[in-house]
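Contributing new records

If you add data, match the layout below exactly. Sequence lines come first and carry their own label; structure lines follow with theirs. Keep one chain per record. Anything else will be rejected by the validation script.
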Amino acid sequence: MKNPCLTAMALAALFIWSSCRKDALNNDLLTNVETPRPALVSNVTIRPAALTSSPLISKVYTYMPAPGQFINESAYGTIAAAQAVVGSTSNLVSLGGYGGYIVFGFDHSVVNGAGNDLGIYGNPLGPQYQWSEPGIVMVSQDVNGNGIPDDPWYELAGSEYNASGTVKNYRITYYNPHAAGTNVPWKDNLGNSGIVQANSFHTANNYYPAMAPNQDSITFTGTKLVNTLVPGSIITNLAFAWGYSDSYSSEYPTYGYNTFDISWAVNAGGQSVSLNAIDFVKVYTGQNCNAGPLLGEISTELKGARDLHL
């Protein structure tokens, strides 16, 4: 028979230890909110690069542009145009207005190594007359190992992630005008409305994406960056400091791409996430901006991507 006094003392000690441990865990959680640090250390098995591996995109999984002047045009706004960026850095695909996106991957996992890991090609102009159409970049690991991008996504937090003008959980819905060369109306979750403006250069196509699953409306959700359009005799759309594709920087004359570090990854709550490698990349147009009837909507373009470790 157990000594009831010793049992009571053991239970009391266990209760005190559990309470202290609970307090410590709560303090850890509070510290995690106040001072962001890696919320997840992922040891998902990576697909190693082989001697025959390419540093360029090997597969486009999804192309879902938002409405835009190039959408549905064979050169820049079709599924065929999106597939043309596989293994290339010279072809171009438009993502349309805010939220339009492309999802792609490589023939291996891109390792989170020293320094920057990804290079993403666009077509910004600069430095004298800047024209940038910044795209937000997200990454994902093939956690379930099924080879398709149905796993959690993490945003690579660029220079504007915590800026006062940045809107998280922004949502916009575009409405199909069911007519070629016609403005596409939109409404957002901030109570705003507007149009993707048609122009005289693109009149044969409906600006609403033909590949959209719903042919009456389409909705996109994500982080919205502040507009950087500067009107004048030469209209400019200014670049951000770092962390966005199709955004002019000193890297472009040297490399032809913007660089990205997987270590910038954050989850939906803004906490840093530690990823040992990534398998999928998503790029979407980050501004909801109309540059007028001559230039049209701000629409991120993509020409390819590169694993910087190969």
